[in-house]
Structure formats: structure tokens, C-alpha cells
Amino acid sequence: MSFRCEKQRFVLNADAAQPAEDGENQGAPLLVNAEYSPRPASANSGFVGTALEGRLVLEDANGDRISESDYDSTLLVGMTFRTRF
Asked: Domain range spanning residue 17?
């Protein structure tokens, strides 16, 4: 089981013709992880969980806040397969 707080910044409208807008996504994912290795050279892993306390913030090119919105919990699911040869 894992828990962390995340904050990701991103840019919208990075076109030179228009001023850029910045965004920030904040959340706190709570995940359960599992891994299965049928052979020493391969492994399957996955996780399932939820993102808690989601918030999206948008700012203009001057750093002024345009919009702020909280969002409900979100289901998170992921899988990976690894092999070595």
C-alpha cells in the first residue's frame, strides 16, 4: 500500500501567437500494489486505488488565478509487464 501527495504543473496554449496559461493539478493517491513473478526473468505488476483531495488550478501568463476547482475522488488502475532476455 502506498500514499503520496502530488503536485503537477503544466502549460496550456504554448503557441507563440497567444500567451501561455499555466495549470496545476494537486491530489493524494492511495494505492494498493501487487506483483507476480512466474519466472525469474519476468514480472507482472499492477495497482488499484483512488486519488483523494483533487484540485485543478489555472493561471494566466501573469500568474493571476483564472479558475480553481475541486474534483471528486477518481479510480486509478495500472498494469505493467516486464521481461528480460
From this structure: 2-83
